[in-house]
Hints:
Elements: H1 2-40, H2 46-54, H3 61-76, H4 83-95, H5 98-101, H6 104-117, H7 126-149, H8 153-175, H9 180-194, E1 201-205, E2 237-244, E3 247-252, E4 257-262, E5 266-267, E6 277-281, E7 288-291, E8 300-304, E9 309-316, E10 319-324, E11 329-334, E12 338-340
Antiparallel strand pairs: 1-2, 1-5, 2-3, 3-4, 6-9, 6-12, 7-8, 9-10, 10-11
Amino acid sequence: MNKTFRKVSCLMxxxxxxxxxxxxxAESESVNKTIAAKEAEVPKNFxxxxxxxxxxxxxxxxxxxxxxxxxxxxxYGTPIVDKDQEFKRVLVNILKSSYxxxxxxxxxxxxxxxxxxxxxxxxxxxxxxxxxxxxxxxxNSLRLDVADEQNNENVAEESEDELDLLNxxxxxxxxxxxxxxxxxxxxxxxxxxxxxxxxxxxxYVSTGRLKDGLNLRQGPGAEYPLALPKELPNGTALxxxxxxxxxxxxxVISKDVEGWVNSAFTSKTAPTYDEVYTAYVEVYNDTLVLxxxxxxxxxxxxxxxxxxxxxxxxxxxxxxxxxxxxxxEYGWVHSHFVVRE
Length: 341
């Protein structure tokens, strides 16, 4: 009788344990499925995802991008591999004013990366403070874009005022970097915030002729001496601070110099020409630097691998003005390392 009772008891306990394990397994499987489903909602290809998010033309566009960044961080960590290199790209973006005047997808990418990058530097440093203000400027810039599209004057005015304050802060942060690039940014943004001219905006040198650049002069007329010994190549970015007749007073971002140019040879977009041809980068065990101007002194935009496709628009003094389709960037490369199709 006791033996029978013990057998029944053991059988009941085993059955209970088996049921509990089955329940735990089922619950665990359910949790795993939920996690997998949640993870599936966070695409790893952030470039493509950000392009899609940039199409969300609402005032909450920045919140949508930052929410994705937070989810991405939880699943994949940070996409920043080299924080110093990424920081240099931020400085170039500021010099190019792309955080103010770029395409929505480009701004979305900058905001996404700055979400991670500003945490990579020690709090209170000039780099971290600049990144924090740059981050806030991108948020307001995206809101301003949408407000303008929706004719929402109140939000647009509020965003513009906030951007003015942030630009002043970025200028001071850049100055505190004690670097050549930081000084350029400080001068550019100081000229921008101190100018009272309603004409202030960004332009590009565009002479309409492939090999002809534009003279930078010391005053508003052809009779004034040259401010630089060489012509400014086509595509050179200019920051307009005032206007007198047919002449613009400009700050040449890449040259860190002010002067005057004839407004007839400028355009709101980088120039393109009919004589475009395809070429490729040809380097071995190295990369080719894409720069903002036709000299080594110009800031670096990117490094191009061997075989990178280029669309060549212009040529001057051994340099090509090119478009790089793979990264959608324009700039100058040395012609010695380029071969035609």
